[in-house]
Design brief:
about 170 residues, five-stranded mixed β-sheet, about 40% helix, Glutaredoxin, two-stranded antiparallel sheet, alpha/beta, 7 strands
Amino acid sequence: MKRILAYILLLAFQFGFSQEFPKVLKTNFSKEALAQKLQDENGKEISIKDILDHHKGKVVVLDFWAGWCRDCLKAFPKAAELEAQNPNIDFVFLSLERSREGFDKSLDKFEMKDKENYWFASGWKNDFNNYIDLNWIPRYIVVDQKSNIAKYYAISPDDPEIQSTIDKLTK
């Protein structure tokens, strides 16, 4: 019986219940992805393009998270370390909460109010998340000073490639 359960779990992870590394590492965002709307903490709509334009000339780390995501919560301490080690880098937090109420509660519960936060009111499946192959959270993307993708795929804030990418971009 244990052997059967192990095979079932193995098959489940092979067929879509685990994080899958993207086949193509993209270096820029499509027009459709940039047009994707999110909501800020006040409920005002803003596009990904507007968010990136606001940070033009700066290195940005996009941090995808949700309060219901155990892996995200486990990553919070390392994400805070990454942010503290890089005070000249802009961190933008993109929430995949299931509801506006959940977004508001998570911002309070996890003390995220002093950070730049946006919520995908459209849900997980949208032009931006589909374009970046978002299949799991947490996820981190490093964006360079010209709003191009410098590090496309990281699943942990202590992935050494995040810091090495930041270091290369800020030299």
